[in-house]
Amino acid sequence: MKHNHSIAVISDIHSNVYALEAVLQDIDSRGIQAIVNLGDTLFGPIAPVETAQLLMNRPSIVSIMGNCDRYLLQDHCESPTYEYVKPLLGQEVLDWLRTFQKSYVYEDALFCHGTPFADDAYLMERVAPYGTDDKSVTELMIELAAVPQKIIVCGHTHVQRSMWLPDGKWIVNPGSVGLPAYFEETPYPHSMESMTPHAKYAILQQQDEGWKLEQVLLPYDCEQAAQKAEAAGRMDYAHAIRTGRAEL
After folding, report:
1. Using omega within 30 degrees of 0 as the cis cutoff, is the peptide bond preceding 189 cis?
2. Domain 6-243 listed as CATH 3.30.70.260
3. H or E element that contains 71
4. What is the pTM of this model?
5. Which regions of the chain are under pLDDT 50?
6. Where are the chain's structural domains?
7. Sign of CA pseudo-dihedral 228, 96, 181, 21
8. Which pLDDT does position 111 carry in this prediction?
9. Nearest 5°: phi and psi at 46?
10. For position 22, what pLDDT does the model report?
11. Strand 62-63 vs strand 34-37: parallel, antiparallel, or unpaired?
């Protein structure tokens, strides 16, 4: 077992190349070589092609297929973001997206986008007609009973958090690199908000006693990213990027 092995976990870039550049620079400055990307990488109105190029130049990054990556491989999708991004993607980028894995296991850690079973479901939260709340500990232990790994690292909600279960499992969400909040209509209208404009990612470090978790909130030039979103007519993205809050 390689002790002090560090893994940087990035997720939900949503085409924000400015946030991604800052995060990769921070990871490099710490000398961390292993990077896992939990997906939803190019789906956004900022700089999808530049985001793809930056990641394709780092073939050692393990990328997981997010629901929005999967949409970009479809021929049709009822979404203004899809209609903006899809025409920009050449064959090389689409072929690269196809290499994304459903999930990834490193020792006792499982990396996935949404849950180990679905790329478009929240793991720790439940969406109800009145908004979102947390699933109970019992519910989560039952849901994850079939997962042999002790640590489940997931993205999708864009909210940085972690939760320890009484059976010894640990759920970790690194938050979103590039989109700190959003409003979603389905299954019921709800907002997910990280409450700060920082680029977010996580570092997991293997130690003798177990894994150490560091949640990183990184300042970057979010104004540049917000202006790009505005130029594409996406005030919702611009507001979220500047404030960490969703516009309702």
Report:
1. no
2. no
3. helix 67-72
4. 0.97
5. 1-2
6. 6-243
7. negative
8. 98
9. -105, -70
10. 98
11. parallel
